[in-house]
Amino acid sequence: MSLQITFNGIDYDSIGLHFLLYKIDRAHPRSGPSSGAGTEYISIQGQGFKADLKPLCLLNDTISEPISVSWTEIRCALPKANEGDEFYGNVNLGVAANGQTWKYFEGGFQYYPQPEVFDIFPRNGPAIGLGVINFYGKGFRADFPLAKLGCKIGESYGTAIFVSDTQLRCVVEDIQIVPEGERLAAVASLNSHSWSIPNDDQGDTGSTYFVPYTISAITPQQGPTLGGTDVIVHGSGFVELESDDRPRCRFGTPSDYMIVEAEILSYHRMICRTPENVPLTKPTILPADIPFSVALSADSFEPWTETSHKFRFYK
Tens of pLDDT along 112-158? Predict the structure, then answer.
């Protein structure tokens, strides 16, 4: 924007100067581990930023130069908390986009000790659906205004719900499937940015790796209402559980269904038998297409796959 001057409100003289307008929209993240782990910088987002204006960052009364500056972002370094890795507290946060005029963010920046995740359960669940995964560890909290709890399976982000300082409940609705022998890291965060370190131990010592399962097809796709038809379930992620929960097939909707036990044949195949004398809702016109899904863990974890697959019953 060019700068002009008038002394009478009518005639303007240009003095050859330009005035740059900028705006500051937000800072992210607004909280992070006091150790600095997992958070390399704080992103100040907006428009009109220029490096030659020599922007400045301020955190915990310490002024520093940005890591980088672009038209839409100023990246400010996030150092460790001065009080150490176990520090919990709020410090001020500000930026001077022109090197002079400070913008302070209400609420500042919240430091906290980085939480740890030791184990998850169950360690498998539906790739698409509302499967619940419990995260167990220490240091979980949601008692500060800038908390933004999150969880992640592989590269799929989910919603984390605080249960206690040792437990989070996570739901990830869409997870990528993996080849046999591979697993996805399950991690958690108090700011949805700085993630915990995966735990690769096994068995009783815990593990934070997850295998999603899904259905690609069922064969055959139809059978008599008298039951007894062996149904081969084709898909991915069918693994034996470490718990007493049995694999199961469900014929019907969540409100009207029949469940039978299933057997895992391989990573890509399961088998179950249609129930006998299927009590179809009356009046039912046969043949009837019934939603079909499978589960590998207890119902309390919402383990059922999506019901896009159908099995046709006939007399």
Answer: 999 999 999 999 999 998 899 999 999 999 999 999 999 999 999 99
Task: Classify residue 286: in a domain, yes or no.
Answer: yes
- Provide the pLDDT for residue 203: 58
Strand partners of residue 19: none
Q: Kindly state whether residue 170 falls inside one of the protein's structural domains.
A: no
Residue 36 lies in a domain: yes
Cis peptide before 283 (omega within 30 of 0): yes
Q: What is the pTM of this model?
A: 0.85
Residue 274 lies in a domain: yes
The residue segments making up the domain with residue 48 are: 23-112
Q: Write the DSSP assignment of the chain as a string of letters.
A: -EEEEESSSS-EEEEEEE----EEEEEE-SEEETT-TT--EEEEEEE---GGG--EEEETTEEE--SEE-SSEEEEE-PPPTT-TT--EEE-EEEETTSSS-EEPTT-EEEEPPPEEEEEESSEEESBS--EEEEEEE-----STT---EEEETTEEEEEEEEETTEEEEE-SB-----TT--EEEEEESSSSSPPPP----GGG---EEEEEEEEEEES-EEETT---EEEEEEE-----SSSPPPEEEEEETTEEEEEEEEEEETTEEEEEPPSS--PPSS-PSSEEEEEEEESS-GGG--PPPS-EEEEEE-
Residue 158 and residue 130 in contact, taking contact as beta carbons nearer than 8 Å? no
Q: Pick from 112, 133, 168: which residue ends a domain? A: 112
CA atoms within 13 A on the CB side of 306: 14
Q: What is the pLDDT of residue 277?
A: 79
Distance CA 134, CA 307 (A): 24
Query: How many structural domains is the chain composed of?
Result: 2
Please give the single-letter amino acid code of residue 100: Q
Domain of 27, CATH number, reads 2.60.40.10
The encoded tokens of residue 211 equal: 């295998």
The token pair that represents 235 in the structure block? 């898909």
Distance CA 135, CA 121 (A): 7
